[in-house]
Amino acid sequence: MKKITLITSGGTISSDYDGQIMRPGKVNTFRELDNRISEIKTPFCMLSENMTWATLKKLSDCLSDALKNSEAVIITHGTDTLAYTASYLGLNNVGIDIPVMIVSADFPLSNPMSNGSANLMCALAAIDAGVKGVFVPYRNPYERPVLHVSTRLLSSRDFDGGLNSALGKVCGYTDRTGKFMLQEEIVPQKIPLEGKGDGKAVWLTFANPGIDYDALARSAREENAALVFAGYHTGTINSGTDGIGKLEGIETYLAGGMYGEKYQSVAEMPSFVKIIDNIAPITLYTKVRIAHENFATQSERDNYIMTNTFGEFF
Question: Distance between CA atoms of 180 and 163, rounded to whole angstroms?
Answer without folding.
Answer: 19
